[in-house]
Write a structure and sequence with these properties.
Blueprint: E1 6-8, E2 16-17, E3 20-21, E4 26-29, E5 40-41, E6 66-68, E7 76-77, E8 80-81, E9 86-88
Parallel strand pairs: 1-9, 4-6
Antiparallel strand pairs: 2-3, 4-5, 7-8
Length: 101
């Protein structure tokens, strides 16, 4: 199976498998964000606080599988991410790829 172009450093997320996202699709929140720290992977689920385990193979998440509410990001086109590669931050599950328009 081919790896995705979404790299997730949030190792404590249930969808993270060896820094690859296996959610199948994610949502990035932060409608009014003007910086990375104001964005968030809204699909993030903390492994320690959840009884959920990801046993379904959704495949690796690709950037075309990202719904993005960050209207001020240059990669946001009609609420879809158009970046070639996306990275999710380890500390707060924010979108490290965010670039202000």
């Amino acid at each position: 199976m081919q790896n995705g172009n979404l790299k997730c450093n949030a190792d404590d997320c249930v969808y993270n498998e060896s820094r690859e996202c296996k959610a199948g699709g994610i949502k990035v929140g932060g409608r009014q964000a003007t910086s990375t720290s104001e964005t968030v992977c809204a699909s993030y689920v903390n492994r320690a606080n959840s009884g959920f385990t990801n046993t379904v193979d959704n495949g690796y998440t690709q950037t075309q599988d990202i719904k993005c509410e960050a209207a001020n990001c240059k990669y946001n086109e009609n609420l879809l991410c158009k970046a070639d590669n996306v990275k999710i931050n380890a500390q707060d599950a924010s979108c490290d790829t965010f670039v202000l328009k």
